[in-house]
Amino acid sequence: MKKIQMVDLVSQLEKIKPSIDKVINEVLSTAQFINGPEVKAFQSELQEYLGVKHVIPCANGTDALQIALMSLGLKPGDEVITPSFTYIATTEVIALLGLKPVFVEVDRDTFCIDPEGIKNAITDKTKAIVPVHLYGQACNMNEIMSIAKENNLFVVEDNAQAIGSEYKMSSGETVKTGTIGDIGCTSFFPSKNLGCFGDGGAICTNNDELAGKIRMIANHGQSKRYHHDMVGCNSRLDNLQAGILRIKLRELDSYLNKRREAASYYDEAFASIPEIKVPYRSDQSRHVFHQYTLTLEGIDRDALHQFLAEKDIPSMIYYPIPAHRQKMFASFGAEKSDLPVTDWLTERVISLPMHTELEEEQLNHITTSVLEFVKKN
């Protein structure tokens, strides 16, 4: 049996290597490394895939979130509602811009921000909501958009883990996550469902005015060369990474289907085990399984993590310390946040290997090992 990886990018590369080699050589031969034709083509193709009016590529997913918030004209002290149960980049950029992160609860089943928590956290200083489509599961965007509209709030979707996920709006229309709010942000970090061979990110919006601001901010605040109308930054997706992403974008739906197949194998294996709760499935959306995350009840999560490691099976705990318990947010009084579901989940979640190259023999070894541990304990 091939060694099990948490994410097997080497095996994935082998299947597309001729195309990758070709585009790398083409970029090298032209020496157009920044803002070249591959970036423009990728931007256009991603717009079409997502069904969104504007895509602005940038250097990474964290920059995407920061630039998105910068474009909204928020002022220091303005409050931004976001979950604590997420990767730190989501919340870090809020504080970096002098805004106040307001941490709210997540849903125990979906791991995504709880709309009721949003409602209860709104004050006259609230200006935006940053929902996170965690692990590849879509947030309850119908409810979130209704709350935002009622309270005149911006919505910036963190779609770094859910690109390609589809969501059914209350109108009956099916759209891609990241295109529902005012702005959507994603990451092309190598381990993401659509990943490049380094850092990369993108921002998308259907709002022409915001798109113009975002483009300017990502390029030193320039309206045209040497004319800097606002404070910006330097955040670009390079031509080489764009070329790689164009190839992988063509494979994305196939990649997502392979992830769903692996998830179904896991689901079936654990279906009769009451101590193991498999990822929630919603009729409203299609999970894309950036992670396959179990919630354990009555099982020693850390002992299982160690047991799997001893059997050469990687597993990960996303995320052991939620944002409201991080030292970096102490000045905001974040530790006083009452988030029992978030705290409960941090002690019980564990993610199993999930990628496009999982083989049945590997899946059998993983599931058999988990079941062995449960039976012994």
How would you explain this protein's 3D organization?
About 45% of the residues are buried. This protein has helices at about 10-30, 35-50, 60-70, 90-95, 115-120, 140-150, 210-220, 240-270, 300-310, 340-345, 360-375, and strands at about 55-60, 80-85, 100-105, 125-130, 155-160, 165-170, 175, 185, 200-205, 220-225, 225-230, 275, 290-295, 350. It is of the alpha/beta class and about 375 residues long. The chain has 2 domains: about 10-105 and about 110-245, Aspartate Aminotransferase, domain 2 (3-Layer(aba) Sandwich), CATH 3.40.640.10; about 250-375, Alpha-Beta Complex (Aspartate Aminotransferase, domain 1). The protein has a 7-stranded mixed sheet, sandwiched between helices.
How would you summarize this macromolecular structure in one to three sentences?
This protein is α/β, with parallel strands linked by helices and 377 residues long. The protein has helices spanning 9-30, 37-50, 61-70, 88-96, 115-121, 141-151, 208-218, 239-270, 301-310, 340-346, 360-376, and strands at 54-58, 79-83, 100-104, 126-129, 154-158, 166-168, 174-176, 183-187, 201-205, 222-224, 227-228, 276-277, 292-296, 349-352. A 7-stranded mixed sheet has the order 1-9-8-5-4-2-3, with helices on both faces. A 3-stranded antiparallel sheet has the order 12-13-14, with no helix packed on it. Strands 6-7 form a two-stranded antiparallel sheet.
